[in-house]
């Protein structure tokens, strides 16, 4: 998505200083990944959300990691995020293997979205949902409120798939900031949502969480992989069998690159 550059947005609106991350990061093939489990990640997000601090959070699967490895511009973008959580099981395995982090579970984006919503509902923090088709967004909001009646959804927006004009972009920033949201969930796909978060970090108040397919999952539009497949790092295989035409290159190519990088570092130590 083409958006207003941070300097333009900052000129149009009052920017908020971004926080420095308190959670440790470790290097995986040149990408800085947060070495923390689900609870510390949610605690950190909520600490920022209460103050409406500008922060960027990503949930990185293997595909996202390899995109960052192969694209220097995107790698620099991701290394500037406050939290880059290990969404993919293989990333957790790599952190444990090469950095002895002792992580017992991954930080799965869709699950972390729900946990964050639960905390927001309990602690009175408003959320804003940005992305998804209109019908998906409507069902998502309905399902979240049904599960958590106290949750304050202070804004929901389905942006057009075409690039926003500068005027539209500035108005979107103003709407989000005026809503009072402490957490902003972005569901506009990878890497569009990461680009959006990075470009708007200087202007948006609140924690931007790039949650990808979580909107579709929680709206019931797309089924998640069975738990046993998720635990074994086979979620990619489940999604591939359901959408082979769209996903075969993403998973077969990027997974192969990950295996090659993992093996080389394991054997050669680099």
UniProtKB/TrEMBL annotation:
Keyword field: Glycosyltransferase, Transferase
Region forming the signal peptide: none
The keyword Transferase is annotated on this UniProt entry: yes
Domain of life assignment: Bacteria
CDD domains reported for this sequence: Glyco_transf_WecG_TagA
Alphabetical list of PANTHER family matching this protein: PTHR34136, UDP-N-ACETYL-D-MANNOSAMINURONIC ACID TRANSFERASE
Protein name (Swiss-Prot/TrEMBL): Exopolysaccharide biosynthesis WecB/TagA/CpsF family protein
